[in-house]
Amino acid sequence: MNPKQPLNPPTQQRALPGLTEKQIARLSVYRRLLQELPSASRPEIYSHDLAEMSRNTAAQVRRDLMTIGFTGSSARGYQVEQLIAAIGGTLDAPEGQTAALCGVGNLGRALLDYFTIWRPQLRIVAAFDIDPEKSGRVIHRCRVWPLAEMPQVVREQGITVGVITVPAPSAQRVAESMLGAGIRGFLNFAPTPLHLPAHAYVEEMDITTSMEKVAYFARTLAPAPVEES
Amino acid sequence: MNPKQPLNPPTQQRALPGLTEKQIARLSVYRRLLQELPSASRPEIYSHDLAEMSRNTAAQVRRDLMTIGFTGSSARGYQVEQLIAAIGGTLDAPEGQTAALCGVGNLGRALLDYFTIWRPQLRIVAAFDIDPEKSGRVIHRCRVWPLAEMPQVVREQGITVGVITVPAPSAQRVAESMLGAGIRGFLNFAPTPLHLPAHAYVEEMDITTSMEKVAYFARTLAPAPVEES
DNA sequence: GAGTCGCTGTGACAAACTTCACGTTGCCTG
DNA sequence: CAGGCAACGTGAAGTTTGTCACAGCGACTC
User: Fold this and answer.
1) What's the predicted TM-score (pTM) here?
2) Taking a C-beta distance cutoff of 8 angstroms, is the pair A127, A149 a contact?
3) Which of A156, A178, B62, B121 makes an SS bond possible with B92, Cβ 3.0 to 4.6 Å?
4) What mean pLDDT do residues B56-72 have?
5) Is position B14 within any domain?
6) Between B93, B99, B193, which is nearest A29 by CB?
7) Kindly report the CA angle at B116 between B114 and B119, in degrees rounded to 5?
Protein backbone atom coordinates (compact mmCIF):
# COMPACT_ATOMS: atom_id res chain seq x y z
CA MET A 1 0.00 0.00 0.00
CA ASN A 2 1.15 3.48 -0.75
CA PRO A 3 2.67 4.92 2.43
CA LYS A 4 2.56 8.54 1.39
CA GLN A 5 -0.32 10.88 0.61
CA PRO A 6 -3.54 10.17 2.45
CA LEU A 7 -5.77 9.98 -0.58
CA ASN A 8 -8.83 10.06 1.61
CA PRO A 9 -8.66 12.63 4.35
CA PRO A 10 -8.27 10.31 7.34
CA THR A 11 -10.14 10.48 10.59
CA GLN A 12 -12.78 13.16 10.70
CA GLN A 13 -14.07 15.55 8.11
CA ARG A 14 -15.46 19.04 8.45
CA ALA A 15 -18.65 20.61 7.39
CA LEU A 16 -19.02 23.59 5.13
CA PRO A 17 -20.27 26.34 7.41
CA GLY A 18 -18.08 25.34 10.28
CA LEU A 19 -20.41 23.01 12.10
CA THR A 20 -18.50 20.01 13.33
CA GLU A 21 -19.63 16.44 13.82
CA LYS A 22 -19.87 16.82 17.53
CA GLN A 23 -21.89 20.00 17.33
CA ILE A 24 -24.38 18.39 14.98
CA ALA A 25 -24.66 15.40 17.27
CA ARG A 26 -25.36 17.58 20.27
CA LEU A 27 -27.88 19.70 18.41
CA SER A 28 -29.71 16.56 17.40
CA VAL A 29 -29.87 15.46 21.02
CA TYR A 30 -31.02 18.87 22.17
CA ARG A 31 -33.86 18.87 19.70
CA ARG A 32 -35.06 15.44 20.66
CA LEU A 33 -35.00 16.30 24.34
CA LEU A 34 -36.89 19.51 23.72
CA GLN A 35 -39.51 17.73 21.65
CA GLU A 36 -40.09 15.26 24.44
CA LEU A 37 -40.67 18.00 26.97
CA PRO A 38 -44.13 17.74 28.53
CA SER A 39 -46.35 20.30 26.88
CA ALA A 40 -47.42 21.56 30.29
CA SER A 41 -43.94 22.80 31.14
CA ARG A 42 -42.62 26.33 30.82
CA PRO A 43 -42.34 27.55 27.23
CA GLU A 44 -38.75 28.58 27.95
CA ILE A 45 -35.76 26.58 29.08
CA TYR A 46 -32.43 27.47 30.66
CA SER A 47 -29.10 26.36 29.34
CA HIS A 48 -28.54 24.70 32.69
CA ASP A 49 -31.56 22.50 32.30
CA LEU A 50 -30.81 21.51 28.75
CA ALA A 51 -27.26 20.77 29.84
CA GLU A 52 -28.40 18.55 32.63
CA MET A 53 -30.75 16.67 30.35
CA SER A 54 -28.13 16.10 27.70
CA ARG A 55 -25.34 15.34 30.13
CA ASN A 56 -23.05 18.24 29.42
CA THR A 57 -22.32 21.71 30.68
CA ALA A 58 -24.33 24.89 30.45
CA ALA A 59 -21.46 26.68 28.76
CA GLN A 60 -21.38 24.01 26.10
CA VAL A 61 -25.07 24.38 25.42
CA ARG A 62 -24.84 28.14 25.16
CA ARG A 63 -21.91 27.92 22.78
CA ASP A 64 -23.67 25.36 20.60
CA LEU A 65 -26.73 27.55 20.29
CA MET A 66 -24.47 30.49 19.62
CA THR A 67 -22.92 28.70 16.66
CA ILE A 68 -26.31 28.28 15.00
CA GLY A 69 -27.06 31.91 15.73
CA PHE A 70 -29.86 31.24 18.15
CA THR A 71 -30.17 33.72 20.91
CA GLY A 72 -32.12 33.51 24.15
CA SER A 73 -33.27 36.12 26.53
CA SER A 74 -31.44 36.61 29.74
CA ALA A 75 -33.36 35.71 32.88
CA ARG A 76 -35.91 33.72 30.90
CA GLY A 77 -33.76 31.38 28.85
CA TYR A 78 -34.50 30.02 25.40
CA GLN A 79 -37.90 29.77 23.75
CA VAL A 80 -38.42 26.04 23.35
CA GLU A 81 -40.58 26.13 20.26
CA GLN A 82 -38.36 28.55 18.43
CA LEU A 83 -35.27 26.64 19.45
CA ILE A 84 -36.68 23.42 18.04
CA ALA A 85 -37.38 25.26 14.82
CA ALA A 86 -33.92 26.80 14.74
CA ILE A 87 -32.21 23.46 15.17
CA GLY A 88 -34.46 22.06 12.49
CA GLY A 89 -33.36 24.87 10.22
CA THR A 90 -29.81 23.65 10.59
CA LEU A 91 -30.27 19.89 10.67
CA ASP A 92 -33.12 19.32 8.27
CA ALA A 93 -33.09 19.65 4.54
CA PRO A 94 -35.94 22.01 3.63
CA GLU A 95 -36.97 19.73 0.81
CA GLY A 96 -36.72 16.67 3.01
CA GLN A 97 -34.27 13.86 2.61
CA THR A 98 -34.69 10.15 2.05
CA ALA A 99 -32.64 7.11 2.93
CA ALA A 100 -32.15 3.62 1.62
CA LEU A 101 -31.22 0.53 3.61
CA CYS A 102 -29.18 -2.33 2.20
CA GLY A 103 -29.27 -5.70 3.90
CA VAL A 104 -32.62 -6.84 5.28
CA GLY A 105 -31.33 -9.22 7.93
CA ASN A 106 -32.20 -9.14 11.60
CA LEU A 107 -30.50 -5.82 12.15
CA GLY A 108 -31.86 -4.31 8.97
CA ARG A 109 -35.40 -5.22 9.89
CA ALA A 110 -34.95 -3.85 13.38
CA LEU A 111 -33.77 -0.55 11.95
CA LEU A 112 -36.64 -0.35 9.53
CA ASP A 113 -38.91 -0.78 12.49
CA TYR A 114 -36.97 1.77 14.49
CA PHE A 115 -37.38 4.41 11.80
CA THR A 116 -40.98 3.87 10.78
CA ILE A 117 -42.29 6.36 13.30
CA TRP A 118 -40.06 9.03 12.07
CA ARG A 119 -40.12 12.68 11.20
CA PRO A 120 -41.13 13.28 7.61
CA GLN A 121 -37.92 15.21 7.05
CA LEU A 122 -35.84 12.02 7.02
CA ARG A 123 -37.31 8.64 6.16
CA ILE A 124 -36.09 5.29 4.96
CA VAL A 125 -38.08 4.84 1.78
CA ALA A 126 -36.53 1.76 0.26
CA ALA A 127 -34.78 -1.41 1.36
CA PHE A 128 -32.63 -3.75 -0.69
CA ASP A 129 -31.44 -7.29 -0.31
CA ILE A 130 -29.61 -9.82 -2.43
CA ASP A 131 -31.95 -12.58 -1.42
CA PRO A 132 -34.69 -12.72 -4.09
CA GLU A 133 -36.98 -14.29 -1.50
CA LYS A 134 -37.18 -10.99 0.28
CA SER A 135 -37.88 -8.85 -2.74
CA GLY A 136 -41.30 -7.46 -3.24
CA ARG A 137 -42.26 -7.83 0.37
CA VAL A 138 -43.05 -4.85 2.48
CA ILE A 139 -41.39 -4.76 5.87
CA HIS A 140 -42.52 -2.12 8.29
CA ARG A 141 -44.11 -0.10 5.51
CA CYS A 142 -40.95 -0.17 3.47
CA ARG A 143 -40.76 -2.08 0.24
CA VAL A 144 -37.86 -4.46 -0.31
CA TRP A 145 -36.23 -4.47 -3.72
CA PRO A 146 -33.67 -6.74 -5.27
CA LEU A 147 -30.23 -5.32 -4.76
CA ALA A 148 -29.68 -5.13 -8.48
CA GLU A 149 -32.34 -2.46 -8.81
CA MET A 150 -30.83 -0.29 -6.13
CA PRO A 151 -29.01 2.14 -8.45
CA GLN A 152 -32.13 2.84 -10.43
CA VAL A 153 -34.43 3.26 -7.43
CA VAL A 154 -31.95 5.48 -5.64
CA ARG A 155 -31.49 7.68 -8.66
CA GLU A 156 -35.18 7.93 -9.43
CA GLN A 157 -36.11 8.87 -5.89
CA GLY A 158 -33.11 11.08 -5.31
CA ILE A 159 -32.06 9.21 -2.19
CA THR A 160 -28.98 10.70 -0.52
CA VAL A 161 -28.50 8.65 2.65
CA GLY A 162 -27.56 4.99 2.84
CA VAL A 163 -27.78 2.59 5.76
CA ILE A 164 -25.55 -0.46 5.41
CA THR A 165 -26.58 -3.59 7.28
CA VAL A 166 -25.08 -6.22 5.05
CA PRO A 167 -22.45 -8.71 6.25
CA ALA A 168 -18.95 -7.30 6.54
CA PRO A 169 -17.52 -8.90 3.38
CA SER A 170 -20.16 -7.25 1.18
CA ALA A 171 -20.14 -3.85 2.84
CA GLN A 172 -17.45 -2.19 0.76
CA ARG A 173 -18.92 -3.37 -2.51
CA VAL A 174 -22.43 -2.32 -1.58
CA ALA A 175 -21.23 1.06 -0.41
CA GLU A 176 -19.40 1.74 -3.64
CA SER A 177 -22.46 0.77 -5.56
CA MET A 178 -24.59 3.14 -3.50
CA LEU A 179 -22.07 5.90 -3.95
CA GLY A 180 -22.20 5.39 -7.68
CA ALA A 181 -25.97 5.73 -7.56
CA GLY A 182 -25.68 9.15 -5.92
CA ILE A 183 -25.75 8.44 -2.22
CA ARG A 184 -23.50 10.78 -0.31
CA GLY A 185 -23.84 9.83 3.35
CA PHE A 186 -23.47 6.40 4.87
CA LEU A 187 -24.41 4.86 8.17
CA ASN A 188 -22.32 1.73 8.32
CA PHE A 189 -23.30 -1.05 10.71
CA ALA A 190 -20.94 -3.57 9.18
CA PRO A 191 -17.88 -4.17 11.34
CA THR A 192 -15.44 -2.98 8.71
CA PRO A 193 -14.34 0.56 7.99
CA LEU A 194 -15.51 1.75 4.59
CA HIS A 195 -13.06 3.21 2.14
CA LEU A 196 -14.80 5.90 0.20
CA PRO A 197 -13.60 9.09 -1.49
CA ALA A 198 -13.53 12.34 0.44
CA HIS A 199 -16.79 13.66 -0.97
CA ALA A 200 -18.68 10.90 0.84
CA TYR A 201 -19.43 11.01 4.52
CA VAL A 202 -19.27 7.81 6.53
CA GLU A 203 -20.53 7.31 10.04
CA GLU A 204 -19.30 4.05 11.50
CA MET A 205 -21.75 2.41 13.87
CA ASP A 206 -19.39 -0.22 15.11
CA ILE A 207 -21.35 -2.19 17.67
CA THR A 208 -18.51 -4.58 18.34
CA THR A 209 -16.09 -1.79 19.13
CA SER A 210 -18.64 -0.03 21.31
CA MET A 211 -19.20 -3.22 23.22
CA GLU A 212 -15.48 -3.62 23.80
CA LYS A 213 -15.22 -0.05 24.97
CA VAL A 214 -17.97 -0.57 27.48
CA ALA A 215 -16.41 -3.79 28.71
CA TYR A 216 -13.05 -2.11 29.12
CA PHE A 217 -14.33 0.88 31.07
CA ALA A 218 -16.67 -1.27 33.10
CA ARG A 219 -13.53 -2.92 34.40
CA THR A 220 -11.13 -0.03 34.70
CA LEU A 221 -13.29 2.84 35.82
CA ALA A 222 -12.85 4.00 39.38
CA PRO A 223 -15.00 1.87 41.65
CA ALA A 224 -18.10 3.16 43.39
CA PRO A 225 -17.43 5.61 46.16
CA VAL A 226 -18.27 4.12 49.53
CA GLU A 227 -18.38 7.33 51.51
CA GLU A 228 -18.89 10.82 50.11
CA SER A 229 -21.34 13.27 51.64
CA MET B 1 -31.87 21.79 38.53
CA ASN B 2 -28.76 22.76 40.25
CA PRO B 3 -26.72 25.06 38.04
CA LYS B 4 -23.48 24.60 39.92
CA GLN B 5 -21.36 21.56 40.56
CA PRO B 6 -21.58 18.90 37.87
CA LEU B 7 -22.41 15.98 40.11
CA ASN B 8 -21.65 13.59 37.31
CA PRO B 9 -18.53 14.47 35.36
CA PRO B 10 -20.13 15.65 32.16
CA THR B 11 -19.04 14.74 28.67
CA GLN B 12 -16.30 12.17 28.55
CA GLN B 13 -14.59 10.21 31.25
CA ARG B 14 -11.06 8.92 31.51
CA ALA B 15 -9.64 5.52 32.16
CA LEU B 16 -7.32 4.60 34.96
CA PRO B 17 -4.04 3.95 33.19
CA GLY B 18 -4.44 6.83 30.79
CA LEU B 19 -6.16 5.04 27.93
CA THR B 20 -8.87 7.22 26.49
CA GLU B 21 -12.13 6.25 24.87
CA LYS B 22 -10.85 6.96 21.42
CA GLN B 23 -7.70 4.96 21.91
CA ILE B 24 -9.67 1.96 23.09
CA ALA B 25 -11.97 2.28 20.11
CA ARG B 26 -9.07 2.37 17.68
CA LEU B 27 -7.33 -0.56 19.33
CA SER B 28 -10.51 -2.57 19.02
CA VAL B 29 -10.66 -1.81 15.33
CA TYR B 30 -6.99 -2.64 14.83
CA ARG B 31 -7.44 -6.00 16.43
CA ARG B 32 -10.43 -6.90 14.36
CA LEU B 33 -8.69 -5.91 11.17
CA LEU B 34 -5.61 -7.90 12.11
CA GLN B 35 -7.69 -10.95 12.91
CA GLU B 36 -9.33 -10.79 9.53
CA LEU B 37 -6.02 -10.69 7.73
CA PRO B 38 -5.68 -13.63 5.35
CA SER B 39 -3.47 -16.23 6.99
CA ALA B 40 -1.35 -16.38 3.87
CA SER B 41 -0.15 -12.81 4.27
CA ARG B 42 3.10 -11.63 5.79
CA PRO B 43 3.39 -12.26 9.53
CA GLU B 44 4.32 -8.62 10.02
CA ILE B 45 2.49 -5.43 9.17
CA TYR B 46 3.53 -1.81 8.77
CA SER B 47 1.89 1.06 10.53
CA HIS B 48 1.08 2.46 7.12
CA ASP B 49 -0.95 -0.57 6.18
CA LEU B 50 -2.84 -0.74 9.42
CA ALA B 51 -3.51 2.97 9.09
CA GLU B 52 -4.88 2.57 5.62
CA MET B 53 -7.13 -0.28 6.69
CA SER B 54 -8.50 1.59 9.68
CA ARG B 55 -8.80 4.92 7.88
CA ASN B 56 -6.32 6.96 9.86
CA THR B 57 -2.71 7.97 9.75
CA ALA B 58 0.44 5.96 10.30
CA ALA B 59 1.58 8.31 13.03
CA GLN B 60 -1.69 7.70 14.86
CA VAL B 61 -1.26 3.95 14.68
CA ARG B 62 2.30 4.09 15.94
CA ARG B 63 1.33 6.31 18.82
CA ASP B 64 -1.58 4.07 19.77
CA LEU B 65 0.66 1.03 19.85
CA MET B 66 3.20 3.02 21.80
CA THR B 67 0.66 3.77 24.49
CA ILE B 68 0.04 0.09 25.10
CA GLY B 69 3.78 -0.47 25.16
CA PHE B 70 3.89 -2.56 22.04
CA THR B 71 6.99 -2.16 20.01
CA GLY B 72 7.69 -3.25 16.45
CA SER B 73 10.91 -3.73 14.63
CA SER B 74 12.09 -1.13 12.21
CA ALA B 75 12.15 -2.21 8.60
CA ARG B 76 9.86 -5.16 9.28
CA GLY B 77 6.97 -3.62 11.11
CA TYR B 78 4.81 -5.18 13.81
CA GLN B 79 4.38 -8.91 14.46
CA VAL B 80 0.70 -9.48 13.74
CA GLU B 81 0.16 -12.40 16.12
CA GLN B 82 1.90 -10.71 19.00
CA LEU B 83 0.12 -7.45 18.32
CA ILE B 84 -3.27 -9.16 18.46
CA ALA B 85 -2.25 -10.67 21.76
CA ALA B 86 -0.99 -7.36 23.10
CA ILE B 87 -4.22 -5.58 22.24
CA GLY B 88 -6.10 -8.45 23.84
CA GLY B 89 -4.01 -7.98 26.93
CA THR B 90 -5.31 -4.45 27.15
CA LEU B 91 -8.90 -4.86 26.01
CA ASP B 92 -9.88 -8.23 27.40
CA ALA B 93 -10.51 -9.18 30.96
CA PRO B 94 -8.28 -12.17 31.70
CA GLU B 95 -11.15 -13.88 33.50
CA GLY B 96 -13.57 -13.06 30.71
CA GLN B 97 -16.53 -10.75 30.98
CA THR B 98 -20.23 -11.28 30.47
CA ALA B 99 -23.08 -9.04 29.39
CA ALA B 100 -26.82 -8.88 29.86
CA LEU B 101 -29.34 -7.44 27.44
CA CYS B 102 -32.58 -5.80 28.52
CA GLY B 103 -35.40 -5.43 26.04
CA VAL B 104 -35.98 -8.30 23.63
CA GLY B 105 -37.69 -6.36 20.88
CA ASN B 106 -36.66 -6.24 17.26
CA LEU B 107 -33.41 -4.50 18.02
CA GLY B 108 -32.66 -6.65 21.04
CA ARG B 109 -33.11 -9.83 19.04
CA ALA B 110 -30.94 -8.51 16.26
CA LEU B 111 -28.15 -7.75 18.71
CA LEU B 112 -28.41 -11.16 20.34
CA ASP B 113 -27.96 -12.58 16.89
CA TYR B 114 -25.10 -10.22 16.14
CA PHE B 115 -23.20 -11.33 19.22
CA THR B 116 -23.77 -15.07 19.15
CA ILE B 117 -20.69 -15.71 17.09
CA TRP B 118 -18.52 -13.89 19.49
CA ARG B 119 -15.20 -14.18 21.23
CA PRO B 120 -15.45 -16.08 24.48
CA GLN B 121 -13.92 -13.15 26.31
CA LEU B 122 -17.12 -11.13 26.01
CA ARG B 123 -20.51 -12.73 25.60
CA ILE B 124 -24.14 -11.85 26.16
CA VAL B 125 -25.24 -14.59 28.54
CA ALA B 126 -28.70 -13.44 29.56
CA ALA B 127 -31.58 -11.44 28.16
CA PHE B 128 -34.47 -9.87 30.00
CA ASP B 129 -37.87 -8.58 29.04
CA ILE B 130 -40.95 -7.33 30.82
CA ASP B 131 -43.25 -9.30 28.58
CA PRO B 132 -43.88 -12.63 30.35
CA GLU B 133 -44.63 -14.17 26.96
CA LYS B 134 -40.96 -13.94 26.09
CA SER B 135 -39.63 -15.39 29.30
CA GLY B 136 -38.18 -18.84 29.28
CA ARG B 137 -37.62 -18.84 25.57
CA VAL B 138 -34.15 -19.11 24.15
CA ILE B 139 -33.33 -16.63 21.43
CA HIS B 140 -30.12 -17.12 19.54
CA ARG B 141 -28.74 -19.40 22.26
CA CYS B 142 -29.51 -16.87 24.96
CA ARG B 143 -32.16 -17.51 27.54
CA VAL B 144 -34.77 -14.82 28.17
CA TRP B 145 -35.73 -14.13 31.75
CA PRO B 146 -38.46 -12.00 33.27
CA LEU B 147 -37.15 -8.55 33.99
CA ALA B 148 -37.91 -8.99 37.67
CA GLU B 149 -35.27 -11.66 37.99
CA MET B 150 -32.57 -9.54 36.42
CA PRO B 151 -30.92 -8.39 39.66
CA GLN B 152 -30.56 -11.92 40.91
CA VAL B 153 -29.26 -13.38 37.65
CA VAL B 154 -26.83 -10.54 37.15
CA ARG B 155 -25.47 -10.88 40.63
CA GLU B 156 -25.19 -14.65 40.51
CA GLN B 157 -23.37 -14.66 37.21
CA GLY B 158 -21.24 -11.64 37.97
CA ILE B 159 -22.36 -9.82 34.84
CA THR B 160 -20.67 -6.42 34.44
CA VAL B 161 -21.89 -5.13 31.07
CA GLY B 162 -25.44 -4.14 30.19
CA VAL B 163 -27.02 -3.57 26.81
CA ILE B 164 -30.16 -1.49 26.88
CA THR B 165 -32.67 -1.97 24.08
CA VAL B 166 -35.86 -1.06 25.87
CA PRO B 167 -38.13 1.80 24.77
CA ALA B 168 -36.89 5.25 25.73
CA PRO B 169 -39.31 5.85 28.61
CA SER B 170 -38.11 2.72 30.45
CA ALA B 171 -34.40 3.13 29.78
CA GLN B 172 -33.47 5.17 32.83
CA ARG B 173 -35.35 2.93 35.22
CA VAL B 174 -33.90 -0.24 33.74
CA ALA B 175 -30.41 1.20 33.81
CA GLU B 176 -30.66 2.14 37.46
CA SER B 177 -31.90 -1.30 38.25
CA MET B 178 -28.98 -2.86 36.40
CA LEU B 179 -26.56 -0.56 38.15
CA GLY B 180 -27.96 -1.64 41.46
CA ALA B 181 -27.40 -5.25 40.50
CA GLY B 182 -23.72 -4.61 39.92
CA ILE B 183 -23.47 -3.72 36.26
CA ARG B 184 -20.83 -1.07 35.63
CA GLY B 185 -20.84 -0.48 31.89
CA PHE B 186 -23.80 0.33 29.68
CA LEU B 187 -24.41 0.27 25.98
CA ASN B 188 -27.52 2.37 25.55
CA PHE B 189 -29.54 2.05 22.36
CA ALA B 190 -32.49 3.97 23.73
CA PRO B 191 -32.74 7.49 22.30
CA THR B 192 -32.36 9.16 25.69
CA PRO B 193 -29.18 10.01 27.55
CA LEU B 194 -28.82 7.99 30.74
CA HIS B 195 -28.17 9.73 34.02
CA LEU B 196 -25.94 7.53 36.09
CA PRO B 197 -23.35 8.25 38.77
CA ALA B 198 -19.73 8.76 37.83
CA HIS B 199 -18.61 5.25 38.65
CA ALA B 200 -20.73 3.89 35.81
CA TYR B 201 -19.66 4.10 32.20
CA VAL B 202 -22.28 4.81 29.54
CA GLU B 203 -21.80 4.49 25.82
CA GLU B 204 -24.64 6.08 23.94
CA MET B 205 -25.51 4.33 20.68
CA ASP B 206 -27.88 6.95 19.44
CA ILE B 207 -29.02 5.73 16.06
CA THR B 208 -31.34 8.67 15.53
CA THR B 209 -28.58 11.18 16.10
CA SER B 210 -26.18 9.27 13.88
CA MET B 211 -28.77 9.23 11.16
CA GLU B 212 -29.22 12.98 11.43
CA LYS B 213 -25.49 13.51 11.33
CA VAL B 214 -25.22 11.49 8.16
CA ALA B 215 -28.11 13.33 6.58
CA TYR B 216 -26.58 16.68 7.45
CA PHE B 217 -23.14 15.91 6.08
CA ALA B 218 -24.57 14.18 3.04
CA ARG B 219 -26.02 17.57 2.19
CA THR B 220 -23.28 19.95 3.23
CA LEU B 221 -20.10 18.09 2.39
CA ALA B 222 -18.13 19.44 -0.53
CA PRO B 223 -19.51 17.96 -3.72
CA ALA B 224 -17.64 15.38 -5.77
CA PRO B 225 -14.61 16.74 -7.58
CA VAL B 226 -15.15 16.76 -11.32
CA GLU B 227 -11.55 17.04 -12.36
CA GLU B 228 -8.47 16.04 -10.36
CA SER B 229 -5.72 13.89 -11.80
C1' DG C 1 31.32 -4.08 5.78
C1' DA C 2 30.15 0.56 4.34
C1' DG C 3 26.21 2.68 2.32
C1' DT C 4 21.41 3.25 1.53
C1' DC C 5 16.70 2.83 2.37
C1' DG C 6 12.58 2.83 4.91
C1' DC C 7 10.19 2.14 9.15
C1' DT C 8 9.71 2.80 14.12
C1' DG C 9 9.54 5.71 18.44
C1' DT C 10 8.85 10.14 20.17
C1' DG C 11 9.51 15.18 21.41
C1' DA C 12 7.64 19.23 19.69
C1' DC C 13 4.02 21.43 17.48
C1' DA C 14 -0.69 22.46 15.89
C1' DA C 15 -5.46 22.09 15.75
C1' DA C 16 -9.78 21.12 17.76
C1' DC C 17 -12.64 21.22 21.51
C1' DT C 18 -14.24 22.57 26.08
C1' DT C 19 -14.39 25.36 30.10
C1' DC C 20 -13.72 29.65 32.59
C1' DA C 21 -15.05 33.90 33.84
C1' DC C 22 -16.85 38.16 33.34
C1' DG C 23 -19.38 42.05 31.03
C1' DT C 24 -24.13 42.67 29.65
C1' DT C 25 -29.00 42.36 29.76
C1' DG C 26 -33.53 42.18 31.35
C1' DC C 27 -36.82 40.71 34.85
C1' DC C 28 -38.61 41.10 39.42
C1' DT C 29 -39.02 43.08 44.07
C1' DG C 30 -39.88 46.46 47.27
C1' DC D 1 -37.84 53.18 39.63
C1' DA D 2 -33.54 51.74 41.66
C1' DG D 3 -31.21 47.72 43.23
C1' DG D 4 -30.33 42.94 43.07
C1' DC D 5 -30.22 38.73 40.90
C1' DA D 6 -29.75 35.26 37.47
C1' DA D 7 -28.93 33.90 32.93
C1' DC D 8 -27.02 34.86 28.42
C1' DG D 9 -22.99 35.83 25.02
C1' DT D 10 -18.31 35.39 24.26
C1' DG D 11 -13.09 36.43 24.37
C1' DA D 12 -9.52 34.08 26.44
C1' DA D 13 -7.44 30.29 28.68
C1' DG D 14 -7.04 25.47 29.28
C1' DT D 15 -7.23 20.72 27.92
C1' DT D 16 -7.39 17.10 24.92
C1' DT D 17 -6.33 15.04 20.57
C1' DG D 18 -3.86 14.47 16.34
C1' DT D 19 0.14 15.50 13.21
C1' DC D 20 4.94 16.54 11.90
C1' DA D 21 9.30 15.54 11.36
C1' DC D 22 13.45 13.63 12.56
C1' DA D 23 16.88 10.70 15.15
C1' DG D 24 17.97 5.99 15.38
C1' DC D 25 17.99 1.42 13.98
C1' DG D 26 17.93 -2.79 11.44
C1' DA D 27 17.92 -5.07 7.13
C1' DC D 28 19.50 -5.50 2.72
C1' DT D 29 22.68 -4.44 -1.25
C1' DC D 30 26.76 -4.54 -3.62
Assistant:
1) 0.91
2) no
3) B121
4) 97
5) no
6) B193
7) 105
